[in-house]
């Protein structure tokens, strides 16, 4: 599969279907295991990626909250049917299955493996146009708000294109609602929308990660039509070579 010249947003990081925070954490865990494999195996990863396998004790330590463990199997079942839309070289729409297998059983543990159709997108993240750092994944794993995760992922994709210490992006209100999976009927008052969808998630990002995010409304007359987000990345720690999954496995093995 070849990427078109104007390819910018990796569809793996731009899912159209909403995911729960637990589903997101499973996805980030699998994604960083791919990063670790690329670091260790290098060019041989172009032939495919091995499955991530975690024993029951490791899973319990990573997803320490009891309610998370109870919801882990249903979350895997939901992600098993996850697909993304793409266009082939002729411009025809194609639907790709994301995971070959993603399964959790209390007695056996967790197994996750991306489908072969995802290999080009995975290589794009870490080889063709590197820039989605392990440190970013480590911090995303700390967030509990789905709005916070989606905002940060959106801005991190823009950072991949320029590697600047400060990222600034503008977006229309309707496009922001689509990005965050917020229906037009939800929070119709702008003050409530800002408080629930922007202010609280941004406070969480600023508190729990090394990124510093703020926003300013853009207006047409007195009406707010969009927002400009600015993210300061200057204090983000340098990537670790081992990757988040290796760190989590080491913790889980203690």
Q: Strand count, sense and closure of the main sheet?
A: 3 strands, antiparallel
Number of helices: 9
* Domains (count): 2
Please state the structural category: alpha+beta
Q: Give me the Rg, rounded.
A: 19 Å
Percent helix, as a range, is 40-55%
How are the strands of the biggest sheet laid out side by side?
1-5-4
Average pLDDT: 82
Record field, number of beta strands: 8
Q: What's the CATH architecture name of the largest domain? A: Orthogonal Bundle
Order of helices and strands: HEHHEEEEHHHEHHEEH
> The CATH topology of the largest domain, please?
Arc Repressor Mutant, subunit A
Strand fraction: 15-25%
Distance between the termini: 41 Å
Q: In one word, what is the shape?
A: globular
- Low-confidence parts: 1-8, 249-254
The first-level CATH class name of the largest domain = Mainly Alpha
Please characterize this protein's 3D structure.
It is a single chain. The chain has 254 residues and is α+β, with helices and mostly antiparallel strands. It folds into two domains: 11-131 and 241-252, Arc Repressor Mutant, subunit A, CATH 1.10.10; 146-232, Orthogonal Bundle (Arc Repressor Mutant, subunit A). It has nine helices and eight strands. A three-stranded antiparallel beta sheet has the order 1-5-4. A hairpin with a 2-residue loop joins β7 and β8 (223-232). It is globular, with a radius of gyration of 19 Å.
């Amino acid at each position: 599969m070849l990427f078109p010249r104007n390819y910018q947003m990796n569809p793996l990081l731009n899912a159209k279907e909403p995911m729960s925070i637990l589903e997101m954490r499973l996805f980030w865990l699998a994604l960083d295991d791919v990063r670790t494999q690329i670091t260790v195996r290098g060019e041989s990863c172009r032939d495919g990626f091995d499955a991530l396998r975690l024993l029951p004790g490791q899973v319990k330590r990573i997803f320490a909250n009891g309610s998370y463990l109870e919801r882990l199997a249903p979350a895997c079942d939901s992600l098993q049917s996850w697909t993304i839309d793409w266009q082939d070289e002729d411009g025809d729409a194609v639907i790709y299955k994301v995971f070959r297998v993603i399964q959790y059983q209390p007695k056996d543990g967790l197994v996750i493996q991306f489908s072969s159709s995802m290999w080009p997108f995975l290589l794009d993240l870490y080889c063709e146009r590197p820039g989605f750092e392990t440190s970013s994944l480590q911090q995303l794993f700390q967030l509990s708000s789905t709005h916070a995760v989606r905002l940060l992922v959106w801005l991190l994709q823009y950072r991949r294109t320029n590697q600047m210490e400060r990222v600034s992006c503008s977006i229309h209100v309707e496009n922001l609602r689509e990005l965050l999976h917020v229906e037009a009927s939800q929070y119709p008052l702008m003050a409530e929308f800002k408080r629930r969808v922007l202010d609280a998630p941004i406070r969480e990002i600023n508190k729990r990660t090394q990124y510093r995010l703020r926003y300013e409304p853009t207006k047409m007359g007195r009406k707010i039509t969009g927002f400009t987000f600015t993210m300061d990345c200057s204090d983000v720690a340098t990537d670790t070579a081992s990757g988040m999954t290796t760190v989590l496995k080491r913790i889980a093995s203690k």
